[in-house]
């Protein structure tokens, strides 16, 4: 089973910030910046390329809500919303996920 399926199942602990019946969001274990988190569909798909449209819509709906929360709560100055497809593009976990990476004008918050 893949690492994100294990997180969805609860076999691997995670620092969750959102969950519903289709999606889970948790903080990245190796954050690029303060507040870096991942939005992950509960049902396994390998990447953005094979995620069903309905799931994709919901993942991005949740990503948009959480991006607004991050901006409001963390006071970041910008956010990268991104997904990597395949190893050549930096994908290391082959279970589709969207990164939310808050950015700060004051670089002290970047790790
Ligand atoms: P990718 O490189 O596939 O776009 O992103 C995978 C992300 O998942 C990486 O930023 C990595 O730090 C994160 N990650 C990998 N394993 C775990 C884990 O077990 N728990 C959490 N919270 N994040 C993980
Ligand atoms: Zn999986």
From TrEMBL:
Molecular functions per Gene Ontology: catalytic activity
Name of the featured protein: HIT family protein
Residues of the full protein shown: 1 to 111 of 132
Domain HIT: residue ranges: 3-111
Phylogenetic placement of the source organism: Bacteria, Bacillati, Bacillota, Erysipelotrichia, Erysipelotrichales
Gene Ontology BP terms: nucleotide metabolic process
Motif annotated as Histidine triad motif, chain positions: 95-99
Active site: 97 (tele-amp-histidine intermediate)
């Amino acid at each position: 089973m893949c690492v994100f399926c294990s997180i969805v199942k609860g076999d691997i602990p995670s620092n969750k910030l959102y969950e519903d019946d289709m999606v889970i969001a948790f903080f990245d274990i190796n954050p690029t910046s303060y507040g870096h988190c991942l939005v992950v569909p509960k049902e396994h798909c390998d990447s953005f390329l094979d995620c069903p449209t309905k799931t994709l819509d919901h993942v991005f709906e949740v990503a948009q809500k959480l991006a607004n929360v991050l901006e409001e709560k963390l006071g970041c100055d910008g956010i990268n919303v991104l997904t990597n497809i395949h190893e050549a593009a930096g994908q290391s976990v082959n279970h589709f996920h969207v990164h939310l990476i808050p950015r700060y004008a004051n670089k002290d918050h970047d790790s």
